[in-house]
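It would be a great kindness if you could assist me with a short task in structural biology. The matter concerns a single protein, recorded as an amino acid sequence and a row of backbone structure tokens. Kindly check, if you would, that the fold set down in the tokens agrees with what the sequence suggests. Thank you for your consideration; the sequence and its tokens are set out here:
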Amino acid sequence: MADTERREDRDPWLEALGRFGPALLGVLAAFEHVERRLHPPELPGLRQSLAPCAESLSESLTAFAELPPPSELSEFAGALRAAGESALEAARLFLGQSGGGSPVEDVLAALRARCRAQELLFPLRRGLPPVNQWFLEPAVWGLVDQLDPEPSPSLSVGLHRAAGADSDRGGFHLYVPESYRGDRPWPLVVALHGGFGHGRDFLWTWLREARSRQFLLLAPTSRGSTWSFGGLDVDGPALRSMVARVCDGWRVDAERVLLTGLSDGATYTLVCGLQEDSPFTALAPVSGVLHPINFANGNLSRAEGRRIYWAHGALDWMFPVALAREACERLREAGARLVYDEVADLSHAYPRERNAAILTWFASELALSEAST
């Protein structure tokens, strides 16, 4: 009788959880949709598409927060509620309902808050199978036990952070998949954020693929508001040091180290990746430009034989596509082994769906096997 009463007491909370969880993931999914399609003329329509998801999350979060959780789940419930609050704040910022900044400032703040929601949600994945699936590619949902096994006390896996000189800029965030066992060398992907960005946020652009396809993921943060393009290059030595530090702590395949990035991160991918002492074996700039410094520092002469995958949007308003086409022609003339991927409906945004193509091009072992699809 006591067990029956306990289950009945929990039912309203579980019902609220059953509404809140899908609403939270719905907002995160909606953000992936709008972030991929960010284009100034499309902002009103994107806001309209996000609004119903935000309303559903607001209502379900309120109901969830009003009900006391079972005592043994109070910490779990508090963390889940915090993730929902971050996601709701992200939605309100995107909709122009919070913050009071310019539309650009509100959108950037919204994307940061969305990343905080994922950061809070990720540690809860074991208790919520749909959340665990959210952080995996659909093709490997059936392999969750292999990709997210019980942690070994002898291995350092999961999310890691190294602070920079001022604790905010110049450090890095690292993700080591839970399936890492140290019995073989693993590929390493180094992903550079765009201007005014942060590695803490850009990590989530690649984490799902890192878990699903099993590679180490390093997301550095520039020393300044963006990467070193002129004058003293402070970021290049820092990146090489970060890669060396990861190689010291985990087994990295030195023949499979990819440098990629978005916008300013893409531009710096070429500036740093073509340097003489670069540890990177392939480069994948997304929505960047070929900075003039490459012509002055000898990088073009070192492009011969280098593997480069350049993705760019035909609608890019910041770095017009004509610049990308011209840059690729110059790199091909210099002897680069270049793949140019022009995305017809992409503005100056990140095409998450291109991650699979980039990874398969980078290392065939990172393609999802037929057994997992």
User: Anything to note?
Assistant: The longest strand covers residues 252-262. The radius of gyration is 22 Å. Residues 138-372 form a domain with the Rossmann fold fold (CATH 3.40.50.1820). The chain has a mean pLDDT of 94.
